[in-house]
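Our preliminary data section would be incomplete without showing what the modeling component actually yields. Below, a chain of 246 amino acids is followed by its predicted structure, encoded as tokens that our downstream tools consume directly.
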Amino acid sequence: MRRSPVLFELRSIIIAGLLVATSSALPAQVAFSSSFTLGSINVSDSSVPPAFISGPFNYGFSPLGIDTAVVGQVNITDISVSADAALNSTNPGYGGSSAFNWAVFVGPAPFGFAPGQVDGTSVRPDSIPSSAPTQFQFAQPGGTIIGATTVVTGSYDFISDAFLANPAGKTFPPPHATFTSPGDFVDGLYAQVFMWTEAGASLDFSNITVTVDGNVTPVPEPPSFLLMGVGLFGLIGVAKVKAFTA
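Predicted structure:
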């Protein structure tokens, strides 16, 4: 039996339309920059020399920041932090040191740390594990003048492996990101900060700010034209069956 010219032409039009709809439905990668203001934290280590990190300790976990707009396949490219650091005391047993540590956690879900200040604990801060898939950890000095406030900053570019800090610091351990290939963020992008000192000093941090840069590919939704095309394909199948049975 000969094919119906009309049916053949209609099918060709639908196939072409489906190809156009499919190509136009492919989501584009979009750059994002999420900033979070995460409050204040006091850190102190009351170790008595020659002990270096024996406590008791003060440290804190910032509130949990979330950007619900970052949803889809996410690559994190850069994390930067800043805070105002007020120096209360240094440890003379370590040359007037006031070094402290940052740990910035970023991921698609909360990290299991209750926000708030922890005071007078014997739990070493460097013994607390994190399951955060993306972390930026580094140490830096917090100034030398008691009562002075210093703006401290740090940043890490995961693409170029570039670390910057003011005052100059060092990554310890090195920053790492497990999302070297895109990770699936369903509920948004979460960020939290954990800060402590190992040098017997006491510092107050305020205006803690975290900025996370990256790119996201939104999860595609089937366009109405594509759904219409699928329905028309079904009608074509019905028409072909009727044509062969007529």
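Confidence is low (pLDDT under 50) at residues 18-24, 224-245. The first helix runs from residue 5 to 25. Preliminary results of this kind motivate Aim 1 of the renewal.
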